[in-house]
Write a structure and sequence with these properties.
2 copies of one chain form a homodimer. By secondary structure, chain A is an alpha/beta fold. Chain A has 14 helices and 18 strands. Chain A folds into 3 domains: about 150 residues, 3-Layer(aba) Sandwich (Rossmann fold), CATH 3.40.50.720; about 160 residues, Dihydrodipicolinate Reductase, domain 2 (2-Layer Sandwich); about 80 residues, 2-Layer Sandwich (Alpha-Beta Plaits), CATH 3.30.70.260. The interface between A and B is large, with 74 and 74 residues.
């Protein structure tokens, strides 16, 4: 049986998961692919800790360049994370004719172009299924399974930590900080969860999705991003009253030749299949022009799901190697980028529905003042909830709007927040309109 | 740009969908694959009807063998349905070195082995993504995306007609026959919906899934099958009271080296992601040993989704052809079948939880009589609902059991239905136990 020899750089959580898959499912992998995938060497600064997998100690090295330079290694798997060092090893490996598998979403999002050009120059494969939505084979779906479709929209829950926190806030009424503590306690949030909570992690993944779905090389910096730290249990309750839940969504949508690319908390209709994606699960909802709506759901992180994705990439490369080919599918999903390219839509041109929560003095005429300013800025109100007196003079006035332009919304809120009847900064969330399941 | 030339046999609903994709997304397909997929000829007995796609009339023929014999055609797409004729054309095409794409689930389920052996003998590709779950790229997911996993279980909603009927019964309280009429009226059921309603269609698809997931060549005849015509709104209401809904599930599960393969209406916990799959949608829930639980959701039938799947197969074959290879991935998903093979579990050995609805006389001691017989046959009751008098002497007694053996259940019901206090044949449904979403 042919053998594909693998070197691993980075023996952390995902690295250990990959090794575990290769050991546990060695026979299955051989049966499916018709080749043996052999782990030959592992580099990590820490070569002493027990990762819960049995490894011949002579496999271990602290010098990643030993792997990069090993002529017997066919594929380098980069799972160390970070950008500069990882980039250096990957480029060096490709220059030496080695294929690369990585789970490094930040690296692909920020330096994808250079990585893909280098892979092309040296005629090697670069695969990164584990970088988006963990174990869910979403990159394969976009590149191959749904390849016949013009993708119209992608709505995705891509950050398990945020989804876990929002689930706790929704189901138990916890505050953001209480829910985040719970997430940390149960291992769903890192000690420093900033990149998960502020939308950066989801934005990295969305950057990759935009490139694959639309053939639009997208820069991470161009993806609009808001985190979930502004979400309160109060807004989640109001969302429920309007028939919605609150999710951190990564949205990529084509509207008239322009692509929206944005990550922010959003109202999702309760009868939308995404509304049922709870706990630390990820899900990617894709609308294609022929396939219609689809959903891909599963665990977006963790040792075992990520290990599954990394090994499926290795099996793909092994299948190429058996046939003596490389680069069967373009890493960017397009063999050539579309001639009439799409462009990113600036955020202030976004048109969507909105939720506002005003803190207003409980006086006659307040609602008329607020709706007057909105109306003057082309924002029309779809529904309003005004609850009784809160006791301290201020009451929440919440409303859903019809479709409006982000620019007009921003301008209106600036004006409204200056009114003497508005006592606190107005809370804003964007609303994904009601759709059939 | 390289060209892949395609001949189509069967210009019905799916055929027209495929043609529409090839016309509408010609540029996109070229951009993604780097090859042109050219439709060269279409065979159908009816070459006059308008299919809503623009076709050069000289492309049309009533003689399918013209396509099979055309040396310029690289791929034959069989979308005529039926078994004998379709088989003949496909075998003849493969003998002439042509690749084959088909959506014919019955053919694959019944004659897969001969088809795959023939494809191997002549070194051609055979692809059938559209045969299971329509537009959802589930075959690619099982063969490639999740290939690193031992599949533990597949729970799937594979028949859109049945799911639509059950949705109407659940949401509007319609009877089976009323819901089926509605389905026909809105185009979700054929004039003769027998194969959809009696579970045959789902069983065909499950046969294919079992082969791909477990490397177990499975015969259609060996898949246990029950339809939805025994489902009543009453049982759906009771399911709701217990925290479940009723779905037609196709289940393949590995338990201790044996594979369950069964299609029947089943209780699904309301917090399971499958419980939210409504209307005519399909969904495939897959548990892998590393990836954990995943769900793939979308439209399982119809011109456009099926067209998407057929063309994604064509693009796969085109990608092989560009690289000068064939048979990169085994059609059966295993390059060699597993050495220690699994075997199908006989239905009477199934162990699962059950729902019973007894029609019993409203007399003291009835419940004790029923539970006595169950207990004597190793069936223990988990919960019971006994409603008040129905007026005509008989009342429903419904219960959920703990796990029990199908054989014991069958035996008990035979005994119980002979009791004079049991007035009608007892209704039985199997229960998928509560799981975290």
């Amino acid at each position: 049986m042919p053998r594909i020899r693998v070197g691993l750089i980075g023996f952390g959580t995902v690295g250990a998961g990959m090794v575990e898959v290769l050991i546990n499912n060695r026979e299955l992998i051989g049966d499916r692919v018709g080749a043996e995938i052999v782990l030959k060497r592992i580099a990590d600064l820490d070569i002493d800790s027990d990762r819960g997998v049995e490894i011949d100690p002579t496999f271990l090295t602290t010098d990643a360049m030993e792997i990069v330079n090993d002529p017997e290694i066919d594929v380098v798997v980069e799972l160390m994370g970070g950008c500069d060092q990882a980039m250096e090893y990957i480029l060096a490996a490709m220059e030496r004719g080695k294929h690369v598998v990585t789970a490094n979403k930040a690296l692909i999002a920020k330096h994808g172009r250079l990585l893909f050009e280098t892979a092309e120059r040296y005629g090697v494969d670069i695969a990164f299924e584990a970088s988006v939505a963990g174990g869910i084979p979403i990159i394969k779906a976009l590149r191959e399974g749904l390849a016949a479709n013009q993708i119209k929209a992608v709505l995705a829950i891509l950050n398990g930590t945020s989804n876990y926190v929002l689930t706790r806030m929704t189901q138990e009424g916890l505050s953001f900080h209480e829910a985040l503590s719970t997430a940390k306690r149960f291992g769903y949030a890192e000690v420093d969860p900033t990149l998960d909570i502020d939308g950066s992690d989801a934005a990295h993944k969305l950057t990759i999705i935009v490139s694959l779905a639309f053939g639009l090389p997208c820069k991470y910096e161009d993806v609009y991003k808001e985190g979930i730290d502004t979400v309160s249990p109060e807004d989640i309750r109001f969302a429920g009253e309007f028939g919605y839940c609150l999710k951190l969504l990564a949205i990529a949508r084509e509207v008239g030749g322009h692509i929206e690319a944005r990550v922010h908390p959003a109202f999702v209709p309760l009868d939308h299949i995404l509304a049922n994606v709870n706990e630390a699960y990820n899900a990617v909802y894709i609308e294609g022009d022929f396939v219609g709506p689809t959903l891909f759901y599963g665990l977006g992180a963790g040792r075992r799901p990520a290990g599954s994705a990394v090994v499926s990439d290795l099996m793909d490369i092994a299948r190429n190697q058996i046939k003596g080919i490389t680069r069967r599918v373009s890493p960017l999903s397009f063999a050539r980028l579309p001639a009439k390219g799409l462009s990113l839509k600036p955020m202030d041109q976004l048109i969507t529905a909105y939720y506002f929560r005003f803190s207003a003095l409980d006086r006659p005429g307040v609602l008329s003042k607020i709706s007057g300013v909105l109306g003057a800025n082309n924002i029309s109100i779809a529904s309003v909830i005004q609850k009784g007196r809160a006791g301290h003079g201020s009451v929440p006035v919440v409303m859903l709007t019809h479709e409006a332009r982000e620019k007009d919304v921003r301008k209106s809120l600036l004006l409204l927040d200056k009114l003497d009847v508005v006592t606190e900064r107005t809370i804003l969330f964007r609303v994904e309109k009601r759709t059939g399941s």
